[in-house]
Amino acid sequence: MNRAGPGAGHWRWQRLALNVLAILLAVLAWHGAALWKDNLLIFPTPLTCLSALGDVLSDPERRDQLLITLRRVVVGFALGSALGVAVGGLIGSVRSVALTLEPVVHFLRSVTPVAWIVPATIWLGVGEGSLRFIVVYATVFPVAINTLTGLTQVPVNKVRMARTFGASRLRIHASIVLPSAVPYIVTGMRLSLGYAFMSVVAAEMVAGRDGIGFLIYDSRIFFDTATMFAGILLLGAAGLLADRVFSVVTHRGLARFYAGQVNT
Amino acid sequence: MSATTRARTGDGAANRTRRAAARRARLRGAPVALAGICVILIGWEVVSRAYGKPMLFPGPADTGSTLLDGLTSGNIPTASVASVMRVLSGLLAGSLAGVLLGLLSGSSRVLEALLEPFINVFRFIPPLAWFAPALLWLGSGETSKVALIVYTSVFVVAVNTAAGVKAVPRDMIRMARTYGASPVRLFFAVRLPASLPYIFSGVRIALGNAFMTVVTAEMLGAESGLGVLITEGTANTDVRGVFAALITLGALGLCADRAFVRLLRRYGGRFSAATREEGSIR
């Protein structure tokens, strides 16, 4: 950004051209490697993968797999974020809660969500409940920890000013501490969105009956490598799109919380 | 010279008092923390007793004795060593590759534009999705598992490194140039040291990712490892074993993270004011 000068508009097009060039080169290299390997089962060409992708998208039943996975991500992400803000906010505001829960949170955070698939399926059964549990688990901790950090990084001078003007502790909390934590919460949520995608695929592969993760796993068993790659590409595209949408929406909608920050 | 020494000792003394105060505060909080953790443990035990099936929902007592059994029989230590070795080798290779990629894409706009589509797309493809291709290409041995860990570490480190290279204060670069530093000198004496804090924070995230990925990779097939213990527990519907493995895993991940932060503070402190001042491990 800081390098944007008079030629910035020009550079934007050059950059786009370079992006496209890089992708084209990679696809060409992939095609060459696949032809050289000459084994479609192990190393399909980009064209076969593209046609497999077309098959997946035109087949209503398999197209639904993508929607199923996306719905799991969205629901789990929303629940997990809300819970994360609540937990992080509680830990950040009440000292006795912090002393009790913080070590527990740090411990649970370092256990991977995927490892909970097994207990979750034993308790909640194979199905929606345990998949949702995994996604919620994956999203809670980044949000909680970022909320906590945000609550401790409040600009001291603003708090001092509010106190000088006679604001109550509750008032300070509501109108200074919480708003200044919003950028941190948003960052945590953005991280969590990525984790939600990762964990939902893992959960679907291990304990699912449908969804993109299951599609990938299923096509491996049938040695349908092209469909497997189609699933992987689909996943990357969906994740990238979700991330872009999230960052645009939050920057537009929450712009006032970023006031005074240069690098948004 | 004497002025800097004085400033430094003054700083050290201030740090020491601050650290002592923090330690006192922690000691004062200890009883509350302990009581809280006891309440949580008792609650867990009560819920598990009420559930009534220790195989399916073990309490802390059952889990603890299974954990002890595993530790003394050498089951859990062997599995932990296998998992940790995978994590370390994958993390090392992945971080080196990530630093290289990040340095390249951070120091030239053209290279950045060429690399960014890949970094952006691969970031959102979870390592587990590559499990099947990795099996096909690299076989079911150690290579495919380590490759997955390399994959989880590379992009985080690359993105962070690139951000670090771009965030080098321009005045520093100008000063070095004014004093006639060659581009190579500029890179090794200014750009690389200034971006080290970013690189380290990338490696720290990658460490966490590696601990996640190794379990998944092992759950889908390995000879030994904590992930294998978890799968075995499922096969026998014995959640006690799963819990013991989970606790070991969490403890290892937590210790690795803390150890990394400690090492960084001790040996990497001079590269970053931030790790010394705000990198408080809470």
UniProtKB/TrEMBL annotation, chain B:
The keyword Cell membrane belongs to this UniProt entry's keyword annotation: yes
CDD domains given in the database record: TM_PBP2
Domain ABC transmembrane type-1: 80-264
Subcellular location(s) of the protein: Cell membrane
Gene3D superfamilies (UniProt xref): MetI-like
Family: Belongs to the binding-protein-dependent transport system permease family.
Protein name per the record: ABC transporter permease
Species this chain originates from: Actinomadura soli
